[in-house]
Design a protein that fits this description.
The chain is an alpha+beta fold. 16% of the residues lie in helices and 38% in strands. The chain folds into 2 domains: 33 residues; 120 residues, Immunoglobulin-like. The protein is built from 1 helix and 9 strands; from the N terminus they run H-E-E-E-E-E-E-E-E-E.
């Protein structure tokens, strides 16, 4: 029986391919003795402020003088290396107002420091550049001189304080 040149070449090629594949597999199976993986993740910037009112913040007895009455705690959070600042603005510029019928003047302290109550935001905290996460809670207090009920118009007296935290 005569074998064609094509059949002989195919068998030779198949045999050589099998030998080469076996050698490649053996070399690759023995070549690596260690392996590595690099794990990585990211953390987003977090600059946040939370104002938590204290009991009685919205039912102040305006006829009784108060000195450094705790009305809220403010939580400042910042994880950037650039620092941050906190500003506060008073809608009525330091007045508890009953519409146009009357007002009671008050002052405020943030973390024990007085600041100007103004409709224009005032800086109450400046956090410098840091390599540490900031997560602090600070007290907000107010003071006012009590006024007898017969000297004030009946109704609700209020002001809104707006806190803003920013990081460059």
């Amino acid at each position: 029986m005569k074998t064609s040149h094509f059949t002989h070449s195919t068998k030779l090629f198949t045999g050589l391919f099998m030998i080469a594949a076996s050698v490649a597999f053996a070399v690759s199976a023995q070549a690596a003795t260690t392996g590595t993986i690099t794990l990585s993740g990211t953390v987003a910037a977090a600059t946040a402020i939370t104002v938590t009112p204290a009991a009685g913040y919205n039912s102040l007895d305006l006829s009784t003088t108060q000195s450094n009455l705790n009305v809220a705690t403010v939580r400042e959070i910042n994880n950037t290396t650039l620092g941050y600042s906190v500003k506060v603005a008073s809608t009525n510029a330091g007045l508890l107002k009953n519409g146009t019928l009357g007002s009671v003047t008050y002052t405020s302290q943030y973390n024990g420091s007085s600041y100007t109550l103004s409709a224009t935001p005032q800086t109450v905290t400046t956090g410098t550049a840091s390599n540490s996460v900031v997560n602090v809670t600070k007290p907000l207090t107010i003071s006012y001189t009590g006024t007898a009920a017969d000297s004030l118009m009946q109704g609700s007296y209020s002001d809104t304080l707006t806190f803003t935290i920013t990081s460059p």
